[in-house]
Write a structure and sequence with these properties.
5 strands, five-stranded parallel beta sheet, alpha/beta, 180 residues, single chain, Rossmann fold
C-alpha cells in the first residue's frame, strides 16, 4: 500500500471529524481524515508532526474546541492552542492553508455556548490577520427558529452530527476545498 499523495487535504480534530465520511461527501477530492475521538486542540498541536506534516497538504481543515471547553479549558486556551497549531504547520509548510471550522453549537453542550462563541470570536480574529487562514462558522446555520440547535442535525447523544448535519457542513465546505 502506497502512502497518500502529497498536496491534498487533511482533516484533523475530534470525533466530529473522525465520524465524517469524507470519501462519501467528497469522492472527487483527495482527503486524508486524521480525526480521533476525544481529542482537543492541544492534541492537534501535539501530533501535528504525525497527522499533518508528513502529508504536505495544500489545505488543512481543523475542527476542535468543544471537548476543550467541556473539559474546563478557557476560551483563551482554545484560541492559544489554535495559534500554536497554525504556527507549527506553517513552520514546516509555510504555503499550506488552514481552514478552521468554528466550535459548533450542540444540544449536549448548549450551556457552554457562550464560552464556545468567545473562543470562536478570538480564533476568527486571528484568522483574519493571515491570508493563509480561513474561518467557517456554522453557528446560525445549525440553529432553529428558537435559536437553539436543530435536533435533526444531531444523533441521539446531542453532540455528534447526523447525515443531515454532515450534508450541511459538506455543502458549505465544498467551495473552500475546491478553490485553488
Amino acid at each position: 500500500m502506497s502512502p497518500p499523495q502529497k498536496g491534498g487535504i487533511v482533516f484533523v480534530g475530534s470525533s466530529t471529524i473522525r465520524r465524517w465520511d469524507t470519501a462519501l461527501y467528497f469522492p472527487d477530492l483527495k482527503i486524508i481524515n486524521r480525526g480521533f475521538g476525544g481529542s482537543d486542540m492541544v492534541d492537534a498541536v501535539r501530533y501535528v508532526d504525525r497527522i499533518v506534516i508528513p502529508y504536505e497538504p495544500r489545505l488543512v481543515v481543523v475542527y476542535s474546541g468543544d471537548n476543550d471547553i467541556s473539559a474546563g479549558w478557557t476560551s483563551e486556551d482554545v484560541a492559544i492552542q489554535f495559534e500554536r497549531f497554525t504556527r507549527a504547520v506553517h513552520a514546516k509548510l509555510p504555503q499550506t492553508r488552514i481552514l478552521l471550522i468554528a466550535v459548533k453549537p450542540s444540544l449536549l453542550r448548549w450551556t457552554q455556548i457562550d464560552r464556545m462563541r468567545m473562543a470562536n470570536t478570538m480564533m476568527r480574529a486571528y484568522c483574519e490577520r493571515d491570508d493563509r487562514l480561513a474561518f467557517i462558522d456554522f453557528d446560525t446555520l445549525m440553529l432553529g427558529w428558537d435559536e437553539k440547535p436543530r435536533r435533526e442535525l444531531f444523533v441521539e447523544d446531542g453532540l455528534h452530527l447526523t447525515a443531515q448535519g454532515y450534508q450541511l457542513w459538506s455543502a458549505v465546505l465544498r467551495p473552500w476545498l475546491t478553490s485553488p
